[in-house]
Amino acid sequence: MVKAPVISFATSKGGSGKSTALIILASVFAHEGGKVAVIDTDPNETVWRWSQKPGRPDNISAYKTRNEDELLDAIDAARASGHQLILVDVEGRASALGNVAISAAMLTVIPVRPSEPDGVEASKTIKAIRAIERSTGLEKRYCIVINGLNGAIRTRTFYDVKATFEQANIPMAAHLVDREIYRRVLMEGGTIYDMADLTEKQLKTAHDEAYLFADNVAALVGLRPEDAGHATPEAEAAVKTAVNRAAAATKDQTQNEADSVAGEATRVVEGASLSGEAA
Questions:
Q1: Adjacent-strand bridge partners of 175
Q2: What H or E segment, with its residue span, contains residue 19?
Q3: pLDDT (tens digit, 9 = 90+) per residue, 161-186?
Q4: N or C end of the chain: which has fewer CB within 10 A?
C-alpha cells in the first residue's frame, strides 16, 4: 500500500501566506472527496484555529503538534486512519521541528510574496531543503507559490516568472491572488466553497485558481486522479482554462507589481544558485 504523501508548507519568513495556501489546497482535495489531514506545528496556530471553527468538512482531520515526536505520531495516525493527503504547516522560522517536517515531506511548498524579504527567505528555505537532501541522501521536492498578489499577472509576465523558476528546476505550483474569499475563510471557517454570498464570478475565479494549484501539486507528488480525489471532469476543464482566465483579469494589476514578481523570481533563483541550490 502506497503511503499518503506528506506536503509541508514552509518558509523562514512569517506572513507569507503559507497557512492560507495550505487551507486552500485542503479545501480543493476535500471538496472533491479526498480524505485530508492537516497538521499545525506553528505556535501561531492559524491552521488549528481555522479547523476549530464551524464549516470544516468531515473529511478534513486536524492535528496540533509542538515537537518532533508529536509530529511523527500525527503523521502515522493520519496514515493509519486512511487519509490520502497530509498537509503540514511549519512555523515561520528555522527550527529542528521544521527540519523534521521537511524531512518527512515528499514535497515542500514555499510561499513567496512579491517582496525582497520573501525572496531572501525563500532562498534560505531552499538551502535548508538541499542540506536535508545531502544529510539523508533522499530527494526532497519543493515548489514556489507566488502569493498575495493584488491582481492576476499579465499573461507574458506570468509565463516569464514560471519559466525563470522552471529553468532552475524550481517548479511554480500557482500564483494566488489576495482575495476576499481567502481572508474570510481564515476568519469565519469553512472552505472556499462555502461563501454563497459572493458573486458567481468571484467564486468561479477563486475556484479555478485553487483547482490549478491542486492539480499542479498533485502532479508533483505523483497522485493519480483517483487517488487525489479532485480531478473530476469539471476540475479538469477548470484547470485547462484557469491560467488564461486569470491572466485576462488584469484590471487591478499594476505593471510595478508584475515587475516586482518577475524580479523576485530572479532573486530566488540567483540566491539558490549562489549556494549551489539550483540544478
A1: 146
A2: helix 18-31
A3: 666 777 777 888 888 988 999 999 99
A4: N
Cell of 257: 507589481
Q: In what order do the strands lie in the sheet with 107-112?
A: 60-64, 36-40, 85-89, 6-9, 107-112, 141-149, 172-177
Residue from 13, 261, 246 nearest 120 by CA? 13
Quick one: cell of 167? 529553468
Angle at 184 between CA 179 and CA 187, to 5 degrees: 140
Among 198, 209, 193, smallest CA distance to 147 is for: 209
* Residues 115/265, Cβ–Cβ less than 8 Å: no
Exposure string for 254-275, b = 16+ CB within 10 A, e = fewer: eeebbebbbebbebbbbbbeee
The letter for the amino acid at 3 is: K
CATH architecture of 6-274: 3-Layer(aba) Sandwich (3.40)
**Cα–Cα nearest to 148, from 266, 44, 45, 257:** 257
- Looking at residue 99, its amino acid is N
Rounded Cα–Cα distance for residues 174 and 214 (Å): 9
